[in-house]
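Why do we care about 3D structure at all? Because function follows from shape, and shape follows, mostly, from sequence. That is the central idea of this module. The next example makes it concrete: a single protein chain, its amino acid sequence, and then its structure expressed as tokens.
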Amino acid sequence: MNNLDLVEISPNADPPVAKIIDWGKYNYQRTKQLQKNKKNAKTLDVKQIRLGLKISDHDLGVKLKKVIDFLEHGHKTKITIMYRGRELAHKEIGFTLATKVIEILGDDIIVDQQPQFSGKQLIFIVRSNHAKAKNS
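And the structure:
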């Protein structure tokens, strides 16, 4: 027998389980398998869409199509409503817009983070409600 090692597989078992293997070959195969798993794993990003407070219905539709595209690919989407100048005096308009966006997206989404005011922007995070998006 050349270059074989006695490796303890399950030390907590009664009696402990050991195996005679070529440690170098085993370690190499394990490293390759980990690299393969890492390569096949899909990283999910948090995509971001920024909206102005005075956005028109058509422009909102265009932005929401992009949000839907992100959600179909399984990404979480952070939607930011920007306030400029005196718009800060009317924070309720932003919350109304956020509610409108959530209603338009409908049952296809889950709101991970409710609309929250931070600085000069209103932020909320949505993700897809479909199991299909999680697997793709």
